[in-house]
């Protein structure tokens, strides 16, 4: 059945009942990782994506509290994955809290965060948040009495403890992504074009239908909104990359485009509901001010001008989970999925469901306790 | 003549006319660097130290402006060294602006900063400032059009340019100090006790008289006041180290102690003159508010209680150059020496002169243009 599907990852062998498939369009690949990949999806159902936002694995890694939150976050993801059985998962940034991780390779925590998805054979993609790539931040309390606690820096089979074996310099975006990609055949993440570095997670995935493999159902764009080791920004260069890529693969704006990044652009502030959440906005919590990127450098202008751009999904604000219209777009927050990070609002995950004929995007929020709310149709 | 002087550095061969000498009391040494060192000083004159504060080498390293400032800073140091011919130099932190340096080894710039002193065969010691050990800070402008400039990352004989060969992770305190010590026989800097890490530049030098080598003239304490990769702080552990060290080598507070670190402690705020500078304070500029450490964790309490502690010298505030009494101590600012760093006040260096019999500490400021001002006696 899958005719255009070359370089089929191993996982496709266990997913043969599916009829859609993914085709990776654009990425800078490692020599060890093919540039193209494809993935078959379920036949009858629409294509369902679960967004896991702000997991913050590794937060307060040296305390009892921290590792306990990570266990709870795994429970949230497991519950959502079992309730929704999505076709795909998107890790929407702040997968880890790197500034609390004093080991050389923060990928240890990243790997824990993707484990519930991997264990179920579900493919995924990820974008970076501001907490993923940051230097270790020394707590000032450690410099007063009783001093620096003994940090356990055990990694895999090599045991180490104490300061000498620990590492306080952080793990860079490129290394985190390298580790994700090389260790996981299910990962659809990419490094992005080198000319956009230090911004890394910039790539696009093409969703194809097996009924008509030459006619894409949608384009899923992933952009790195910065933060941590460099400013919280989507750069002019990224906007230009998007412009050229869109011109190349979707010149007539015929294929719908859905966009994912971590930190809200400034437009989110304009679209935000004032008190509570009223139609046409849809959501359940509106508990804080939108924390936006540091500047707007062109990406929003391009997106609002493209009729094919349907919706943007971001994380970052744990106390916001609304979708609001903005120009011809929808601007959506995900839902805080992790027990790491600030805020005690109940945990959950935003689900995005794409239907092919006629094309539609529907979204709702699935909570840890199994309940569902805030369903909204994001396309005509 | 130098009877207690073991492990005489090579430099002593060219300084045989001197009668005082230094003996390093306390340091954690590398295997390649002896723990003890000694240094002979001039016979007739008192012991004269030049403080070079806030040089900020490597600032705006990718522009034309930046490297030009470094050339000017070398001229300031050269002028002061030739006018004063000091016996010793203290680099009082912010030797480099690490957050502007995109090469793997920021020691390249550190080395430029110590070169005028080394070229004259003058020994020196250094303490860290908040700008010496920091990650590269990406300017937000680089993410707008026209993008990231081509950075020249040429190091020594290996030529490299462009992003791939550059390095944006910073050079840690330990590596900077390792490079200073291993490359320079004239350096009296030390790593400090390992239990104080990440705080590095914590050590004490003993100034001995050749007339009576068993009776030290003064103890010079160096403390790392943090900043950059960890909080701006002198920790409880550092205070405890000072307490124990002082008890060990100066139990009866008989030997005068002079202290050097980079960021003013909170006591400086209490001692600061209000408008202008009036007696008993002495200085020439009082142009900004004291920018203090983030907290006070015990060092000041120990110092004000010791009759032997005579004065503290700091840098950090480029617009302050006063000395003011505080309890039984003197709190002094150095003078902004470098053309790097904020502020356009004329450049200069504070000179500290120690006389043995009777013991006295005198200080003044020598300007780049050769003028001298703000002379003050810091001991009875």
Automatic annotation (TrEMBL), chains A, B:
Keyword terms, alphabetized: Signal
Residue ranges the record marks as coiled coil: none
GO molecular function terms noted in the UniProt entry: hydrolase activity, acting on ester bonds
Keyword Signal: yes
InterPro entries with a match to the protein in the record: Calcineurin-like_PHP (IPR004843), Metallo-depent_PP-like (IPR029052), PAP14/16/28/29 (IPR011230)
CDD domains according to UniProt: MPP_Dcr2
Range of residues in the leader sequence: 1-34
Domain annotation Calcineurin-like phosphoesterase: ranges: 47-318
Gene3D superfamilies referenced in this protein's UniProt entry, alphabetically: 3.60.21.10
GO cellular component: cytoplasm
Record's keyword annotation contains Signal: yes
One Pfam family from the record: Metallophos
Domain of life: Eukaryota
Protein name (database record): Inactive purple acid phosphatase 16
Protein's organism: Pyrus ussuriensis x Pyrus communis
């Amino acid at each position: 059945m899958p005719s255009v599907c070359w370089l089929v990852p191993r996982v496709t062998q266990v997913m043969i009942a599916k009829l859609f498939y993914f085709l990776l369009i654009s990425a800078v690949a490692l020599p060890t990782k093919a540039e193209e990949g494809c993935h078959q999806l379920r036949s009858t159902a629409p294509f369902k994506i679960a967004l896991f936002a702000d997991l913050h694995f590794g937060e307060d890694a040296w305390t009892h509290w921290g590792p306990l939150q990570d266990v709870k976050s795994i429970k949230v993801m497991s519950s959502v994955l079992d309730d929704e059985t999505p076709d795909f998962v998107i890790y929407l940034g702040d997968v880890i809290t790197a500034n609390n991780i004093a080991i050389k390779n923060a990928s240890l925590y990243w790997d824990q965060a993707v484990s519930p998805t991997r264990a179920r054979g579900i493919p995924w993609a990820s974008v970076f948040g501001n907490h993923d790539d940051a230097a270790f931040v020394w707590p000032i309390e450690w410099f007063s009495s009783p001093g620096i606690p003994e940090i356990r820096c055990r990694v895999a089979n090599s045991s180490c403890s104490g300061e000498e074996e620990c590492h306080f310099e952080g793990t860079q975006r490129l290394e985190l992504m390298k580790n994700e990609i090389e260790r996981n055949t299910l990962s659809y993440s990419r490094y992005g074009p080198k000319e956009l570095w230090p911004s890394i997670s910039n790539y696009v995935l093409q969703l194809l239908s097996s009924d008509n493999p030459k006619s894409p159902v949608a384009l899923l764009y992933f952009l790195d909104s910065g933060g941590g080791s460099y400013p919280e920004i989507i750069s002019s260069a990224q906007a230009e990359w998007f412009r050229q890529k869109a011109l190349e693969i979707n010149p007539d704006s015929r294929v719908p485009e859905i966009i994912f990044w971590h930190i809200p652009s400034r437009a989110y502030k304009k679209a935000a509901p004032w008190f509570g959440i009223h139609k046409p906005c849809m959501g359940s919590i509106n508990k804080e001010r939108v924390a936006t990127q540091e500047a707007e450098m062109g990406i929003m202008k391009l997106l609002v001008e493209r009729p094919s751009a349907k919706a943007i999904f971001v994380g970052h604000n744990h106390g916001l989970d609304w979708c609001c219209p903005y120009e011809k777009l929808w601007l959506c927050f995900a839902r805080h999925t992790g027990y790491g990070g600030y805020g005690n609002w109940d945990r959950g995950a935003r689900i995005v469901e794409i239907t092919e004929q006629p094309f539609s995007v529907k979204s709702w929020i699935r909570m840890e306790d199994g309940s569902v709310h805030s369903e909204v149709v994001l396309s005509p």
